[in-house]
Amino acid sequence: MTEEIKQASKDREWAGRAKKWIARGRQQGGTLLNRALREIGEALQGAKELRIRELFNKESGAEHPFWVIVSKEISDHVKSWRFIILLCLIALTCLGSLYSALTGIGDAVKPNSPEGAFFFLKLFTVSDGTLPSYVVFVSFLGPLLGIGLGFDAVNSEYNKGTLSRIMSQPIHRDYLINAKFTAALVVVSVLFFALAFLVMGIGMISIGVPPTLEEFMRTLVFILVSIVYVAFWLNLSILFSVRFRQPATSALSAIAIWVFFSVFYGMIVNVVARITQPAVYAGTGKIIAHQKFILFLQDLSPSQLFSDATLTLLMPSVRSLGPLTQAQVVGAIPSPLPLGQSLLLVWPQLTGLVAATVICFALSYVYFMRKEIRSR
Amino acid sequence: MNQPIIELEGLTKKYGSFTAVDQLSLRISPGEIFGLLGPNGAGKSTTILMMIGLTEPSAGRVRVCGIDSTHNPAAVKRQVGYLPEDVGFYQELTGMENLVYTARLNGMSREAAQVQAAQVLGKVGLAEHGHKKTATYSRGMRQRLGLADVLIKSPRVIILDEPTLGLDPEGVRELLNLIVKLSRDEGLTVLLSSHHLHQVQQICDRVGIFVGGKLIAEGDIQKLSSQLFSGEPFIVEARVMERDGTTGQLKTRLEQLDGVKAVHGENGRLEISCSADLTSEIARTILQSGLDLLGLQRKEYGLDDIYHRYFEGGKDKLQGGRKK
């Protein structure tokens, strides 16, 4: 207990004592002593109570309720077994991919490659074939992290019977869901920044090459994109947690969508591509139109958007994500794109990811605001 | 009567075609302990939710502490403590931490919250258990922690939804005494809902009987019983030694008495409703007819009878459409 708390309890004691004096003064009345006692008691009580109230309402000490919820949620996440397990999983795969990148990086760079200048970024994309690269791991485990942090956000509060109790406090209803999202996002951000910087640090020590400013900026953007990607899955699972009463149902639904997009969606697109494929002698326009249609189908998957965006950001030599005609390629100098151009190239992907995230959040927000909160 | 602290006017809540609360009007004055009494599904919880602005009424107005709960729920919730039915806590936190969290949501600093939490824990008699995780709490302790959770914001009104549900008789007694004590000490207005008649009877200044979304009657218990049983204010129960056929004769003789309205019953147990207290006349008639009188008692109406009477009346309505 701090000094102030002791002081407040002392103040409270005095206020109680003052109350008794007043009562005694009133009951016995008359004598000068009693009257004086009463007067002193009243003055003392007033002063002490004011001080107690001041201490309570001290603006500086009291945090905004929103941040109170956020900090509680963060501490809940960090202390939970679920998060610790996810953290171990991700940290291990991250170190594994780093190891595989370090052993493979020597072969990855050819002497005259245009990407020679971006040696450092190879840490994230290269592997020696034994383990997938860091980017692949993030695109695979990121959704799991997002789902893990969000699938029971609202329904577990409901099942524990705490939701109606929290909702009966003087806070706005959206604080809870906003705070849950913010807290998980903070946790994810800290985790991803830490991991990426860890990879960079270990990489720097072992390959002995520091990143250039451009490489550093690209890494930062890459981290931000991965956070947005995880935020999408986080919001999707929050949406399910508002929609479904049982945490198991919401977790399974989110995982089903994740598996669908990461495993089956590609196959389905392939099947569609084969069925709709134009004849070998079809005109260029028809072939391009078909290509565009397939690309459009692929881009409906958030994991495709993410891998397009990250590969472009981490491989500056990527110049286009769509089909290029011979005429467009003729005369092009095989040099890497600057960061601004790479960003421009993946702007649609980034917008798509952010939009999907926002849509999921908006849906869960609306759903939560309209939900009637009863006790369990 | 002074300014009411809770004021409901024509409050209505509909779920689709089902009317959960129907044209409810109610006024509760400061310092009162009001019992909202009704069977499960009568709309008590819905009414309470509307009072603290957790759900919007379809029609009508709610004012608590002079503030409109529908439009300004946060301001109402600052002054009203609500203990939900079957309250839950964060099990991985201690009782104290749970309270501190609530207090901080109410805008207290962490330090102030700790002082306040320790104080209310003492008030509800959980001072030694504050440092234990709430997962280890018994049902009674959880309910008391719930009360502490309500008190920590220093409310003017506390609303308790089925506070005694699932407690053993001793736990119920302790909790109710605590509620009465707190209400008297701090001048709190208490609104509690229950379907347990006897508990409400013990502590409430006034009760309202709520069936099928309608407030059928309100007032103190005497007033309610006189309101309801005004048609038949006296019921005398008589037990006689049964000899074959004699009860039938006795019934007709009793019915002929001046002031007797109806005689029901068989097998030596008779229920005689009359317009005045005819106990002695009935006794005389029974003795004169040569039967052995085993017992004679004037029936007093408790909340139980009032409740049953209303409940019977409301049953067909309830069957009409229960949600879920």
Describe this structure in words.
- Chain A is mainly alpha-helical and 376 residues long.
- Chain A folds into two domains: 10-57; 65-370, no CATH class.
- Chain A contains 15 helices and no strands.
- The longest helix of chain A has 35 residues, at 173-207.
- Chain B has helices spanning 44-51, 73-79, 95-105, 110-123, 139-151, 169-186, 197-203, 221-228, 246-256, 279-288, 303-320, and strands at 6-15, 18-28, 33-37, 59-64, 67-68, 80-83, 157-161, 189-194, 206-211, 214-219, 234-240, 260-264, 269-274, 293-298.
- With 324 residues, chain B is of the alpha/beta class.
- Chain B folds into two domains: 6-227, 3-Layer(aba) Sandwich (Rossmann fold); 231-298, Alpha-Beta Plaits.
- Chain B starts with 5 loop residues before the first strand and ends with a helix.
- Residues 315-324 of chain B have low confidence and may be disordered.
- Helices cover 39% and strands 26% of the residues of chain B.
- The interface between A and B is large, with 38 and 41 residues.
* CATH level 4 superfamily of the largest domain in chain B: P-loop containing nucleotide triphosphate hydrolases
CATH architecture annotation name of the largest domain in chain B: 3-Layer(aba) Sandwich
Rg over CA atoms of chain A = 30 Å
Morphology call of chain B: elongated
Global structural class of chain B: alpha/beta
What are the segments of chain A in which pLDDT stays under 50 over at least 5 consecutive residues?
Answer: none
Give the helix level of chain A as a range of percent. over 70%
Largest sheet of chain A: none
Most extensive chain-chain interface: A-B, 38 and 41 residues
**Rg calculated over all Cα atoms of chain B:** 25 Å
The helix content of chain B is 25-40%
Q: H/E order of the elements of chain B?
A: EEEHEEHEHHHEHEHEEHEHEEHEH
Spans of at least 5 consecutive residues with low confidence of chain B = 315-324
Largest sheet of chain B: 6 strands, mixed
Count of helical stretches of chain A: 15
Number of domains of chain B: 2
